[in-house]
User: Fold this.
Amino acid sequence: AGGTRRTMHNEYAWMDPRLEARKVPGLGHGVYATARIRRHDLITIFGGHVMTVDEEASLPPPLNDYSHQI
Assistant:
C-alpha cells in the first residue's frame, strides 16, 4: 500500500512504531498496523489543548483538521 509513514512522537502525542499513518484518497488519513499488536498493548497517546470550535477553525491547515472531540 502507498502512503507516507509517520510515527507521531512529540510532547503531546505518541504512536507505536508498529502503526503508520497513511493518506487515504478522498477521506484524509488512516492508521494501519504494520506488525502484530497484542490485546492490551498501548498503541497511542493523544494530548494537546482544549479549545472551542471557533478556536480550532482559526488554526492554519492542516492543524484545523486534526482534532479529537472530548
In short: Residues 53-57 form the longest helix (5 residues). Strands lie at 13-15, 19-24, 28-33, 44-46.
